[in-house]
Amino acid sequence: MKISSSKNRGYTLLSILFLLGTWKVASMLIGSELILPAPEQTALSVGELFLEQDFIRIVSATIVRGLLGFAISFLLAIILGTWAGISAPFHAFLQPILVTIRSTPVISLILLALIWFDVGQVPVFIAILTMFPFICTNIAEGIRNLDPKLIVMARIYRVPTRRILKDIYLPGISPFIFSGVSSAMGFGWRAIIIGEVLSQPQYGIGTFMQNAQTYLLVDKVIAWTVIAIVLSYLFDQLIQLIEKYSLTWKYHQP
Amino acid sequence: MSISLRHIDKAFNQMVIYRDFSMNIPDKRISCILGPSGCGKTSLLNMIGGILPQDHGSIEGAKEKQFSFIFHEPRLLPWKSIRKNLELVLDNQPIANKNQLIDRYLRVVGLEHFADYYPGQLSGGMKQRVAIARAFSYPSDTILMDEPLQTLDPRLKWNLMKTFLKIWNKDKRTVVFVTHDVDEALVLGEEIFVFSQPPVQIKHQFTNTLSEQDKNNENQKFFDLKNSIINILD
Amino acid sequence: MRHSLKYIGLVILVLLFLAASCKTGRKEGNQDPVKVTTLRGPAGISMVHMMDSSTQLDGRQVHYQIKNEPMQVRPLLFQEKTDFAVVPTNMAAILYNKGVNYQLAAIPVWGTLYLFGSDPQIQGWSDLKGKKIHLMARGMTPDVMFRLLLKENGIDPQKEVSLDYSFPTHIELANAVASGKASLAVISEPMISMVMHKNPKVQPLISLNEAWEAYADSEIPQTALLVHKPLAQSNPSLVKDFLKAYRRSIQWINHHPRQGGQRVVHYNILNNADVASQSIPRCNLHFEAAYPIRGQVNDYLKTFYRMNPDIVGGKIPDENFFFQK
User: Fold this and answer.
1) Which superfamily, per CATH, for A36-252?
2) C-beta atoms of B69 and A154 within 8 A
3) Is this complex's ipTM strictly greater than 0.85?
């Protein structure tokens, strides 16, 4: 396993260099800072962003919204997803609702939210609507896919219900939960930032991205985009880390 | 009070498996239900164990019993270690030193070094041995087994059967196990019930008088008895 | 491995080719129609007479189009798809500083912004403390001007008021004020007249124009007419004629508000001729060529520059910003 992973890493590096190289050449050919600034310039802008006074406030505002949205989605998803996993009629009832939410373009949700909600709440609301369907569906699937044989075994051996929930349901659903959370987070961050772009709260990555666009500071737009990508990536890695830690048994296969 | 099935009816999808079926399970003995595949033996075991309700009839003496069940597959929680798997079933039971008990039974099945391993790291045979340890460490009075050795290779099978008898001899609980394998029936079973195809009848019922030395494939008595039973089986 | 390298190389070449062809420049053809882009607001109103009467100039057709928001005009300027365009003056400065190929030819529209609302308690700036005020879009002229005036009148725009940008276009904002959803907002004529007509409870509370003049001792050269540089260089007499026609158009509508109001409705800028005629005098239309008043324009830009250089594109534009006859 180890040998091929370092070979693969080599290709990943090559790909990144290739992307950077293409960017550099394209920016030279286009020759307009307005349309495509050079990568070094953008890197400089990213650096400048870090030094900006309110950088931490801006990024934390976005992160707080994301975490809040996630927490609420997760809670809702556990309740509704568990119910849907246990009850086939409720699952059938919930399906079209989830599909509708998942298929609605994010922008429509945002435009509606701007009408219904206070400006500060819009990004969180959008985050909830984008993340909830994924986590909910996954929890329901996890429960429906749970091996009933293990439950039968536990019942015969008179294992108390609370332990069945804690030691069979929960670990059995975990892989599904992690998968749902992982997808949800990816979409969630994107949705929050678009929400911020349109609702313009005082602090937020989306707000400042939009500002930069208004003032034609293209390098700043890209710089904020880079920050958004890094944010999404970091949280994704965090989830993978937690998953690795909780699902250690999966990695003990011969 | 021994378990007694009275006038059991059970049908699946309009196919009648049991009609007015009655049977007594002797206490503290190993009873073997031997029958062709698909004849409903597993359903009977599940009815005794309370997992499957019968359509009509009653099963006396079952409600008061505490059951261990060794299933066709090991049914261990893959995300818990062997030790924790056993702990789970002992959780609610009034036992003083659970860890000691677990260690003892793991030693008996030869897995004392694997207590902290995960099921994913063990072979099929090892997992079934854990299931046996679990069944015995749980303070049941009746053990139900559903073709637990079917998926194992012959040598492993014979070893596990010997292991099972070793434990059982020290702690004689009522055992009911179902199989279609005549070898298993003759090695493990004390009271042997030969079942027909559905609607199920007990075709033949006898007490196994083979001694321990007799119980191997080269033995003539074993071989003859096996042949006669194979002829009775549908 | 060799094959995939070749393939990657081909992909790179294609991408580069596409990238290079992105940079479009427009050649000046002598018979191409002259394209004019204006905004649905005072700028559009200022041009209605031109749109009726100046459809031909120096033997060339003139095509007019009306956009709802300055942000919709901006891409036309990047792609150099219009010969004349009307945008907010600070946006004109940003574009020039970023190398977009247009010059400032004239200022046709001066200060038209008001703080507007149905809250009778607002008598002066200090009454705004703790209130929520709606603005059209962050970074555009109403927003930066309002924030600057708040500061000059002792109010911290970040901490002491709540600024809300949830209605992103001036039409939406106007409707929100008319329906009562927004109780305080900064908007421009002719939206003001339109809203007052729909909802008599709404009144102009503070004139940003007056506040600015008190502070900066000059008027607000709010909206700019831009001209495509290549056209200005290859055909300056056409440009001059256009400017003359524009000046006449503005004079006409200021003198004929009633008829003007009907033309405004004809061009779909407002939908009520009476409201339109009433708003015309408040639209502060008077034509000034840019070069002679460049000092004033620079003072205007400098005020914003001191607040935040990005508002004007990072620096005060140089002399070449201004079209000279």
Assistant:
1) MetI-like (1.10.3720.10)
2) no
3) yes
